[in-house]
From TrEMBL:
Claim: rRNA-binding is one of the keywords in the record: no
Membrane-spanning parts: 7-25, 31-54, 80-100, 120-138, 145-165, 227-247, 267-295, 315-332, 338-360, 372-393
Subcellular location: Membrane
Keyword Membrane recorded: yes
Domain (Amino acid transporter transmembrane) ranges: 3-392
GO molecular function ontology, one term from the record: L-amino acid transmembrane transporter activity
Membrane topology category: Multi-pass membrane protein
Annotated source species: Diploptera punctata
GO-annotated cellular components: membrane
Name the UniProt record assigns to this protein: Amino acid transporter transmembrane domain-containing protein
């Protein structure tokens, strides 16, 4: 990793998120070998999309989504891309608040022996928004978050160790080999959107590489490769060991709820809430840039590079507006997993997969193997778009695990945003309803 370690950690933190909680569920649905294969394919897909996005930007001499869209499609294309990015990233912010609203109050209530009420949820969300999200969101440079992002990656490493510890009894007894699935294609429809969006980071690329000194395509591709590979490793470890640890139980999209009730489990849950909170700025940065470009910036000369600096007053106004709107929606309408899932499986794929491919195809007019590869990426993007939308609109498919029916849980819808991703996104996980855990019957 060398001198790029800080940038790699920042990018990795923008990739990994809520989706990691759904990995054991996806491994159970699709089988261990098929799930690992899907993650490896998703890793290659994400790196390919990043490569085409960066190369198109370098060829067009543009350093952000908006100007690249302007160069490729003209003013209408720039406006459409801005609206898509704003909608996708605002949806990711709302998803973050929804997840924190599900996890945080339960932890605080247990820690201080309080009732887990709607009022407590509001207090927790507002406190995190004012005390953590807003101060971090007001930072101007992504590189300022390097230390926090490194610490967050350290937390995910602790999560891996915790899941491995939970799996040790079954690994020692060797009683899991004939009771788990290794290849189960029946679960692909439900899990394809989660796998495909789990490793995407395209909306954060330009903001992160803006702070990378002497950036060139090879250097940026190297950073993307290390960050994506690191997150792929986390997903595989959590998915495999989480499945082995809890294969005797019925579990869905939030593996935290299956942990043995100990102080270490509570610490991991609390750490996850904090990791989501400190990841907000990585979503706020590109969302704010797109909002500023849409509302205040007019590109008149496509061959000139306009400064990306946002005046202080507008910078603060846009930051507060993004946080306030997403917080308000998260507070008053917590049950919006269908909308979040649709945003992730449609706009997320359009921005993260299809736009990089189309931009490169339009800018690179010569026939080449790379152009054919971009056309293949576009085809895969359309396929993911169709499958993801179908899976989101057919919840009966999402609840069927080996003939068993599970109630809808929110983290699973928000994992398809996993970008959160939150994810992405920002794409979506089903979050278990903590208020009614008795709905899930043990075997």
């Amino acid at each position: 990793m060398g001198s790029n370690t800080a940038t790699i950690m920042t990018l990795a933190n923008s990739i990994i998120g809520v989706g990691v909680l759904a990995m054991p569920f996806c491994f159970k649905q699709c089988g261990i070998v098929l799930s690992i294969l899907m993650l490896i394919l998703s890793s290659g897909l994400s790196r390919l999309a990043c490569h085409f996005l960066l190369k198109a930007a370098i060829m067009a001499r543009r350093r952000n989504f908006e100007f690249l869209a302007f160069h490729t499609f003209g003013p209408p294309g720039k406006t459409i891309v801005e609206l898509f990015i704003i909608g996708f990233l605002m949806g990711t912010c709302i998803a973050f608040f929804v997840v924190v609203g599900d996890l945080g109050p339960a932890i605080i209530a247990k820690l201080f022996q309080l009732d887990n009420t709607a009022s407590l949820r509001q207090v927790v969300l507002i406190s995190l928004a004012v005390g953590i999200v807003l101060p971090l969101g007001l930072m101007r440079n992504v590189s300022s978050l390097a230390a926090i992002c490194t610490a967050t990656i350290g937390f995910y490493l602790c999560l891996v160790f915790k899941v491995m510890a939970e799996a040790i009894p079954h690994l020692a007894a060797n009683d899991w080999m004939d009771k788990v699935h290794f290849w189960r294609p029946a679960g692909l429809l439900q899990c394809t959107p989660i796998f495909s969006m789990a490793l995407f980071c395209q909306t954060q690329l330009f903001e992160i590489f803006e702070s990378l000194p002497n950036a060139n395509l090879d250097k940026m591709n190297e950073v993307v490769r290390h960050a994506v590979n690191l997150c792929t490793g986390f997903y595989i470890f959590v998915g495999f060991f989480g499945y082995v640890a809890f294969f005797t139980q019925n579990f869905t999209g939030n593996i935290l709820m299956s942990f043995t009730p100990t102080w270490a489990s509570d610490a991991i849950k609390f750490g996850f809430v904090l990791s989501v909170a400190v990841s907000f700025p990585l979503v706020i940065f590109p969302c704010r840039a797109s909002l500023y470009s849409l509302l205040f910036r007019r590109v008149q000369m496509p061959h000139e590079t306009t400064s990306s600096h946002i005046p202080e007053t507008r910078f603060r106004f846009l930051t507060i507006a993004i946080i306030s709107i997403s917080l308000t929606v998260g507070l008053i309408t917590p049950n919006i997993e269908l909308v979040l899932g649709l945003v992730g499986s449609t706009i997320g794929v359009l921005i993260c997969v299809m736009f990089p491919a189309v931009a490169f195809i339009c800018i690179s007019t010569k026939s080449s193997s790379e152009r054919l590869l971009a056309q293949f990426l576009l085809f895969v993007g359309v396929l993911i778009l169709v499958l993801g939308t179908y899976a989101t609109l057919n919840p009966t498919q999402n609840g069927d695990v080996e003939g068993q029916t599970f109630p809808p849980d929110r983290i699973d819808s928000i994992a398809r945003m996993s970008l959160l991703p939150v994810d992405k996104a920002v794409t979506t996980i089903k979050v278990i309803d903590f208020k009614h855990p008795e709905q899930i019957e043990p075997k």
